[in-house]
Amino acid sequence: MSAETPNVREVKGYCGLCIARCGTVATLTDGRFTRLDPDPTHPTGAAICAKGRAAPELVYHKNRLKRPLRRTRPKGDSDPGWEEISWDAALDQIAAAMRRIAEQHGPGAVAFSQPSSSTTAIADSTAYIRRLMNAFGTPNLVYAFDLCGWGRAIATRYVFGVGTVGVASGGAMPDIAESGCLILWGYNPSFSRITHATATVAGLKRGMKLIVIDPRNVGLANKADVWLRVRPGTDGALALGLANIMIERGWYDQEFIREWSNGPFLVRSDTGRLLKANELASGGGSDQFVAWDFLVNRAVRYDPTEGRYEASTKDLALRGEYTVATMHGSLRCRPAFDHYATLCKTYSPDVIERTCWIPPSQLEQAAHTIWHARPVSYYAWSGHEHHANATETARAMAMFYALTGSFDVPGGNVLLPAVPAGSITGEDLPAAKRLVPAIGLVERPLGPARLNNVSARDFYGAVLEGTPYPVRGLIGFGNNLLLAQGDPVRGRAALAALDFYVHADLFMTPTAALADIVLPVASCFEREALKIGFEISADAQSHVQLRQAIVEPQGEAHSDTDIVFGIATRLGLGEQFWDGNVDASYRQQLGPSGITLEQLRAEPAGLRKPLATPYRKHAGSDSKGNPRGFPTPSRKIEFWSETFLDHGYSAMPDFVEPPIGPVARPDLAVAFPLILTCAKPSLFCQTQHRALPSLRRRALHPEIELNPATAAARGINNGDWVEVRTPAGAMRARARFSDQLDPRVVVGEHGWWQGCEELGITDSDPFAANGTNFNLTVDAAVRDPVSGTPAHRSNLCEIRPVLAAR
Ligand SMILES: Nc1nc2c(c(=O)[nH]1)N[C@H]1C(S)=C(S)[C@@H](COP(=O)(O)OP(=O)(O)OC[C@H]3O[C@@H](n4cnc5c(=O)[nH]c(N)nc54)[C@H](O)[C@@H]3O)O[C@H]1N2
Ligand SMILES: Nc1nc2c(c(=O)[nH]1)N[C@H]1C(S)=C(S)[C@@H](COP(=O)(O)OP(=O)(O)OC[C@H]3O[C@@H](n4cnc5c(=O)[nH]c(N)nc54)[C@H](O)[C@@H]3O)O[C@H]1N2
Ligand code: SF4
Ligand SMILES: [Mo]
Predict the structure, then answer these.
(1) Would you tell me how many other CB atoms lie within 10 Å of the CB of residue 721?
(2) Where is this region: Disordered (predicted)?
């Protein structure tokens, strides 16, 4: 080839930078990664975003970490005195520190951390990180799960037994292609998951109805049939209010509720607990529930082990009050659904108008559209997940959704099929059977700690106060705690107080800067990864791909997977890590699929393993010939949760006002009259990517969106720097006017700290009130009682103009 003709090569793969995982074609020019484009033949390859297009800038950025570094000066010193060390030395020191801490305090005193896989490529390695934790013997994984995943994927399990959204956890995804009506609830896929946005636009073209529930008119809101401009933090009330209209109008699938929910179960009016069959005068099992047949006026027993009633379900009462003959005499009882309907009734349209700031006509229009345009699907994300009432909001949404009867039908939220795959997370390893309870489990037994996930605040408590037991070490795979979480000052103190902290990342961040050892990580374009299923549809789920490394890692960077294997080997756990052979781990995962590693290597674009989608799987039979039902204690969708009651929570998801809000704290609202919420930017992922000039040029500084009238009352012009102050702290941002926003609400952005040298912007101090760290304004002590989710949204604030940023 002559010097003038560049050697151009294209490599198919997918972009790992965010949850969309877009199918891509990378161009290499003379061996250098120069472009990323969509791969239209890929199930997620219709388009890519600006961040994806900036991938070469990310890969070759001069601030990338390139060699392992060791701190030589004390934490707290403004200069850490980073010294380059070899990988061997780094891994030896990590293993030695882990052993030392485990000997002194037990392996649970070594916590791990990772970033969210929705905002990074850590999904390449999460199963290996979990396996290392299980092999070593610690349950404590610190990450933003309480803020991201809990609401949509786990809280809803207390209703459906499965997540209603988020297939990664086996949840039911919106089948947008077949939906009659889609609800985007506090979710803006135009910015955050373009694969869902393109599917929505295609749906709108064929006449699908769209409901957007968001304080902002953003993304697809202006194309929606109904845009509900909800007051931040009141989505739980809205879900109950929508359900109220649907129940009042008879717009709900009674047959489905009767057959597949625990709505018919009788609740004793004296104790407020579900009536059990062994309490009946006619007798029955202590684990059996009781419903009422209103035609023949008698109690009907239900056996959850078989998932069957003793008689036909067609006349089971959902409403009303009945007198039941029991061992203790006559008892008044009402079906659980009657309790739910009564709760919903307290959220009448005028209450919703006062609570959520949504006019009755719009509420009615939304309920009407939802019922008449079935099948309905929905996806709810950060808009409802970042509040101190996230769990009950998610449950209320799930119950409202159950009314539509669209669960697991074509066009509803569907439990998509998956290519069979082997698990490698290592729950069966010897040390995994002896784990101490994860931090936070005792305080919140139904929360994320149940799945061995630890919130930042609880982790800080374990380090600083030794509660519930001391944590002395942190093995960090990314995660930018000090920018992503509230209480950054306390977080800094906790990280500095650790006996040992290693952090693996692409860039030096304020969080990484507190580590003893920093490891350079290869970006997803510099490493291989296996992905089985692409989540958004049955077709996407059938796609299996071994993503190739497009270029060599920068400097001495390694993949997170290699780092896990390196640590495991040094700890003497190599045998539990396929003797260090990553390929063998791929083979174990692929085993049940029938696809071989060789086939995948030969086909970088990926392979399809065609999958059929059975619907209404709850109506199918289990191995004993019983109706499969739902994986809840009652095998039914639970409108009434005895599990919640047993743990001191309410059986039904009543709405609780945001703890720092105008209704709960009118005293604070005097000095802080505005409601502060936030949203993700389209050009960056969370706290990342501000150093990439092509992106930063388009968004130089954080913004705070506010109504022009709100600004005028405070002498603020569009573009002015302002101070945003809450009872917890302050930050600065530039005013951006939006006349569609309620004048009582302002919307900020988090994640700003990183400079961009090419544009002359320096890093900002994440701990200074005149800096740009939104999470200084968050009081992380304000938390959801079930999940510990801190209220990053629906805070109170005041805004005033300031002369300059800093
Ligand atoms: N106020 C406010 N706070 C929020 C949110 C909000 O909307 N508002 N959002 C919340 C949500 S939803 C989430 S998920 C969290 C996110 O918080 P985190 O999960 O901490 O995610 P990021 O802040 O994006 O930081 C990711 C870090 O991982 C690094 N990284 C990227 N890719 C890799 C990789 O492949 N390997 C390794 N080892 N490191 C990598 C990045 O360089 C970066 O330092 O923040 C939460 N905090
Ligand atoms: N470009 C980009 N893509 C991303 C990310 C990113 O940072 N940037 N992060 C990834 C991650 S980890 C996540 S979690 C997802 C998040 O994806 P989304 O959930 O779409 O993220 P947000 O923009 O934080 O929140 C969605 C909407 O909630 C609205 N909102 C704010 N408060 C409320 C409220 O009280 N109620 C309701 N109903 N709505 C409210 C906001 O105005 C916003 O439009 O995106 C993923 N993809
Ligand atoms: S939306 Fe952008 S960042 Fe996310 S996977 Fe697609 S191209 Fe990558
Ligand atoms: Mo997230």
Answers:
(1) 18
(2) 611-632
The residues, ordered by sequence, that sit 6+ positions from 802 with a Cβ below 8 Å of its Cβ are 721, 722, 723, 732, 770
- CATH 3.10.20.340 assigned to 666-801: no
Angle (nearest 5°) at CA 485 between 484 and 489: 115
Residue with tokens 């060699």: 67
> Is the CB–ligand 1 distance for residue 678 below 6 Å?
yes
If 0-12 CB within 10 Å is exposed, 13-18 middle and 19+ buried, where does residue 350 land?
exposed
- Provide the angle, in degrees to the nearest 10, between the axes of the packed helices 560-570 and 582-590: 110
Q: What is the pTM of this model?
A: 0.97
Q: Give the phi and the psi of residue 178 in degrees, each rounded to 5.
A: -115, 5
% of the chain surpassing 90 pLDDT: 97
Pairing of strands 110-113, 473-477: parallel
- Is the CB–ligand 1 distance for residue 477 below 6 Å? yes
Residue nearest atom 41 in ligand 1 by C-alpha distance? 478
Q: Locate 335 and state its tokens.
A: 């079906």
| DSSP characters over 155-218 | ITHHHHSS-SS-GGGTPPEE-GGG-SEEEEES--HHHH-HHHHHHHHHHHHTT-EEEEE-SS--
Q: How many CB atoms lie within 10 A of CB 396?
A: 31
Which numbered atom of ligand 2 lies nearest the CA of 682?
Answer: 1
| Of 587, 603, 583, 586, nearest in space to 543 by CA | 603
Give yes or no for a contact between 564 and 424, defined as CB atoms under 8 angstroms apart: no
| DSSP state at residue 366 | H
Whether 151 and 384 have beta carbons less than 8 Å apart is answered as yes
Q: Of 737, 738, 736, 733, which is closest to residue 751 (Cα–Cα)?
A: 733
**Tokens read off for 76:** 């707290």
Rounded average pLDDT over 775-781: 96
Considering only CA atoms, which residue is closest to atom 4 of ligand 3? 18
381 C-beta closer than 6 A to ligand 2: yes
For residue 402, give both structure tokens: 């159950």
Q: Round to the nearest angstrom and report the end-to-end CA distance of the chain.
A: 53
Question: Per-residue pLDDT tens for 610-652?
Answer: 999 999 999 999 999 999 999 999 999 999 999 999 999 999 9
| Partners of residue 621 on adjacent β-strands | 627
CA 228 – CA 221 distance, rounded (Å): 9
What's the 21 CA to ligand 3 centre distance in angstroms?
Answer: 6
Architecture of domain 69-144+421-608: 3-Layer(aba) Sandwich (3.40)
State the pLDDT at residue 6: 87
Cβ 793 under 6 angstroms from ligand 2: yes
Q: What is the pLDDT of residues 292-313, one digit of tens each?
A: 999 999 999 999 999 999 999 9
Q: Ligand 1: does its nearest atom lie under 6 Å from the Cβ of 640?
A: no
Mutation probe of ligand 1 site: the residue of 14, 65, 112, 116 with most atoms within 8 A of C-beta = 116
Peptide bond into 375 cis (omega under 30): yes
- Domain ranges across the chain: 69-144+421-608, 150-252+348-414, 254-341+618-646, 666-801
Report the half-sphere exposure of 153 (CA within 13 A, side-chain side).
16
- The one-letter code for the residue type at 618 is H
Q: Ligand 2 atom closest to Cα of 686? A: 7
| CATH hierarchy code of domain 150-252+348-414 | 3.40.228.10
> What's at 226, amino acid-wise?
V
Give the Å distance between the CA of 158 and the centre of ligand 1. 27
